[in-house]
Design goal:
This protein is mainly β. The protein has two helices and eleven strands. The longest helix has 11 residues.
């Protein structure tokens, strides 16, 4: 895996997707490593998370601040600051910030994808709110992603410790 030099100070302009309470910065684009990985940093507003979805890329989530309720292939559990969660490619997943303050994660995506373009386009289709699942999946097909349903509900609670 070949990497070129890259430095991210964390002052990259964020991509905003207000419909899902998301602020996102690309910290390592795939152009720096021949598409091997992408690293993004996200801030999730209280009570928000993405619609449940699946895609072939593996994701590693490092919770930096706050607490999340994750659901991966039907298993729900809490992840707190310091926890690392791996989501295998193809697994259905989602999460929600269960705190009353913004929560933050560092996410590695393997192999990499053009997260700047993906989330900018997602923000455009969500500019008037979260569209129906058919519209989300029309968008998702271009990215080899399937949207499976609404975000994880914070009131559902965990299925395991």
């Amino acid at each position: 895996m070949a990497f070129s030099f890259w430095r991210s100070r964390g002052d990259e302009p964020p991509i905003l997707v207000p419909a899902i309470g998301l602020e996102l910065s690309v910290r390592l684009p795939p152009t720096t490593n021949r598409g091997a990985m992408t690293v993004i940093e996200t801030v999730n507003a209280p009570g928000y998370g993405p619609p449940r979805h699946r895609h072939p890329e593996t994701e590693l989530f490092r919770v930096m601040e706050g607490r999340y309720l994750y659901e991966i292939d039907g298993r729900r559990f809490f992840a707190d600051a310091g926890d690392l969660v791996s989501v295998p490619g193809g697994a259905s997943h989602g999460f929600v910030n269960v705190t009353d303050r913004p929560a933050r994660q560092l996410i590695m995506i393997l192999p990499g994808l053009d997260a700047e373009r993906f989330f900018t386009e997602l923000g455009e289709i969500m500019q008037h709110g979260v569209p129906d699942r058919a519209r989300l999946n029309e968008f998702g097909r271009r990215w080899n992603m399937e949207f499976l349903g609404p975000p994880v509900n914070a009131g559902d609670g965990p299925t395991e410790p």
